[in-house]
Design brief:
The protein has about 70 residues and is mainly alpha-helical. The protein contains 4 helices and 2 strands; from the N terminus they run H-E-H-H-E-H. It has a two-stranded antiparallel sheet. Helix 1 packs antiparallel against helix 2 and helix 2 packs antiparallel against helix 3. The termini are far apart.
Length: about 70
C-alpha cells in the first residue's frame, strides 16, 4: 500500500512539473505536494488540477484574438 501511494505521489510531482499554469502557482503546488506529502497530493487533485492550462485553453485564446 505504501509503495502505491509513493508511486502516485511521484506521478503527481511529475504531472505538476510538466504542466503549464497561468501564474507562479506551479512552484506553489510543487511545494505543497512535496512538503505535505499525501495530504498535499489530495489537496492538489481536489483544487489544483483545475488551474492547469491545457492545449484547448491555448487554442481558444488564439481563436478569440481574431
Amino acid at each position: 500500500m505504501f509503495l502505491g501511494i509513493f508511486a502516485h505521489w511521484i506521478k503527481t510531482i511529475v504531472e505538476i512539473a510538466n504542466s503549464k499554469f497561468a501564474d507562479i502557482s506551479k512552484t506553489s503546488w510543487l511545494l505543497v505536494v512535496i512538503l505535505l506529502g499525501g495530504l498535499g497530493m489530495i489537496i492538489y487533485h481536489a483544487a489544483g488540477r483545475s488551474q492547469r492550462i491545457t492545449e484547448q485553453d491555448n487554442t481558444s485564446e488564439v481563436i478569440d484574438a481574431f
